[in-house]
């Protein structure tokens, strides 16, 4: 067949870039047969089988693969690829942008999720979600994997960059003002690098798709965690509520939990916030601490790791178990007030025994003088 007209055809919307290697089939019969064989394997194989075939044709890293002309073609073409092919190539081309940079992907790369959206994703996916759908990654903290899974779920349903997902979940401020925000991106990259080195390199992405299917199932209860995060954005237990809570504690418990003042009221507020939002303690609001004069914040270590461990301990005989029960009741009351009536009976999140990425001040040298001073300040 010959092309009619002598002029150069005008590029149509959705055509590949001028430097693309995509063009007419080659004239060599053997090469054409090879391409036809590859196309047949792609069209007839399962998603995982197609991904294996594509992996052989693309660079080894997602960053390099995402920059190929083929990747630009399938992600920017006006005519979208089939859902099956998109599911196969998406993990191979997915890259994360630098902090607060423009999104690399299209909004249409987001998973069609009519029943659930980014508002239904907590900043740290629950441990039971992780256990049901994911395989532990060697040398990777489950906490980092669960945080990365939350970020990816938001990207899957809303599109956009990792920075936008982190800002939405409250993990970053959105302006780079937190000194530790870069770790959000480096840790996500660490999780994906570790996942690609496992026996099943696509296992992490497969777990995300499995969890997405569970959230899409009609019988799965959904919580609007974004509504909870917004309602408790600058929340803390106020002084009257704290006094009433302490008044309900047995006298014996009060004698074994000394110094229940502002610092411990702040820690207790973080505990309740984590229970309601399923976020990480290190990202919780701390208005009580923020209200203190700068000199007082520098002088006193406001976050007490030892007391957090006591509050979150599951020992039934501990005096702190009584306090924890009161805090759990407060969390349930808050959740019931925030959620619609039919969601009030949903279980609250568990509270981890760690505090992630909280900036620590240099430890002071312990002396009899400042030890007595700290006891008096409580």
Give a verbal description of the structure:
There is one protein chain. This protein is mainly α and 378 residues long. The protein folds into 2 domains: 41-216, no CATH class; 225-360, no CATH class. It contains 19 helices and no strands. The chain has helices spanning 29-44, 47-57, 62-66, 69-76, 83-93, 127-133, 142-158, 162-169, 182-196, 203-216, 225-231, 239-247, 251-256, 262-277, 287-290, 294-299, 305-312, 319-338, 368-377. Helix 6 (127-133) crosses helix 10. It starts with 28 loop residues before the first helix and ends with a helix.
Count of individual beta strands: 0
Order of helices and strands: HHHHHHHHHHHHHHHHHHH
**Gross geometry:** elongated
What is the arithmetic mean of pLDDT?
A: 76
Largest sheet: none
State the end-to-end CA separation.
89 Å
- What is the radius of gyration? 26 Å
User: Beta-sheet strand percentage?
Assistant: under 5%
